[in-house]
Amino acid sequence: MLDLKTMLLLEFATTAFMSVAWLLVWFVWRQIYELKVIAAGFFAIAIGLFLYLQRGPDPSLIRVVTDNMVIKFGLVLWADGLARFLGQPRFVGISAFCLAAQLLFWIFAVIYDPTDLGLRIHASTAFTVVMMALMIRTLYRDRSQPPFLRWIMIFLLGEYSAASLLQSALVYIQPSTVANPVMTNINTWYFFQGHIFIVGFFFCLIFMVGMRLSMDLRDRNAALAREVTLRRRLEGELSASLEGEKAARQDQRQLMRMVSHEFRTPLAAIRYASDMLTLMLERPQQAVAQRLKSIDEAVSRMTMLIDRFLASERQDEGVLKIEQVDFPDLYEDVQRHFDHAGLGERLRLHPVAPMPAYRGDTEMLRTVIVNLVDNALKYSPKDAEVEITIRAHNGDIVLEVKDRGIGIPDRDLAQIGNRFYRASNTGGTGGSGLGLHSCRQLVGYHQGHLDLSARQGGGTIARVFLPLPGFARADTETMQEEEPA
User: Fold this and answer.
1) Which CATH architecture does the domain made up of 317-476 adopt?
2) What does the pLDDT read at residue 264?
3) DSSP 206-261
4) How far apart are alpha carbons 306 and 263 in whole angstroms?
5) Could you read off the pLDDT of 222-231 as tens digits, one per residue?
6) CB atoms within 10 A of CB 114
7) What is this structure's pTM?
8) pLDDT tops 70 at residue 339
9) How many whole angstroms separate alpha carbon 194 and alpha carbon 7?
10) Could you tell me which CATH number the domain at 4-229 has?
11) Is the dihedral of CA 110, 116, 120, 122 positive or negative?
12) DSSP-derived secondary structure for 433-449
């Protein structure tokens, strides 16, 4: 038969080994932080058993209380760690109260009658039953672990509670079994079944951790499968969207080609009629000649817009006509255009200072200025002037058009220039919302940008920024002019 000391030594070695094993498990799976609490519980019980082994034949009263409280603290850590692990209420208040009551009762019992172990055994039994009940309640409410595993652990906890109650009952029935203050071999059976309980508790926890890791892995695989399915669906939607966008762009290009073709027919008729009038009228009046010339220039400009703007997708194919831009000549073209329309007297062109060399598409830049001036005249009083300035500033060519018109509301500044968008204060003034959009596109071909701002005293300032030196010669070698079909 094993004596009590040998049983305590075996139980101490087993518990110490288990505490180290739990620490190693926690180091491997840090995400299960509750394992360190359970490991601390095994460690506390191992220390308590070691202190029992170190007792002499006549231990001090402080030593008697301390040895017992260390083991009781280990039980509290077990209950708390199990509740944390299973995600159940931790019963911190109940555990703290039981520890405090146990400590006070043991101090009272040791001082009142140090030779009577019965009172201390009954107190320990009560504490053990409460802790086991808390753990049983935690397991009963849990649904994350398999039922059979939970019920095995509940059986182990119930068995240990029953053994503690049995020992307390035997002490109550036969007090002589604990008459000596030093625990004798008669209590070896109690520590033996306690050893079996600790081993069973350890293995049940190991299986629970394994199930937890297995469920975590299954959940992650399921989440990964859902994410893969979602990504595939989004990929399919994106592919369908790209195909739709591609088809829409193809339709748009086809529409632009059709519009371009259909517009050329009436424009050709207008040009033909203008030419015939020029031939039929041998000596037309000056006003008539100017009107015919204006019609011819308008037809040419409209044809250019069709070729270079409505078919803007062809820009990548080399529709830009790059050349050295003569800004004074550009000034004169703009003035002449509005003179033919009877609006030239409202323009105030500031003299062009000596300008650095700039390479770009003159026709496109002329269209930009004409559109900006046309907008300024349209939304300004009939007697208001429109100022035009061209200058070099901070590495840019700046084309500036100032008016004293109705201005642009602040809420519309972010949207103005988008296709078909018109400011909220335009009222009944005619327009399509394409003029500024055209300007932004044509300026964008030159890597520049258009800025619109309010003018002090009322009106709008439109500034076009064209970075110097424009298109380099090396860039233009690959841009071949493509004649329209």
Assistant:
1) 2-Layer Sandwich (3.30)
2) 66
3) HHHHHHHHHHHHHHHHHHHHHHHHHHHHHHHHHHHHHHHHHHHHHHHHHHHHHHHH
4) 8
5) 999 999 999 9
6) 12
7) 0.50
8) yes
9) 10
10) 1.20.1070
11) negative
12) S-HHHHHHHHHHHTT-E
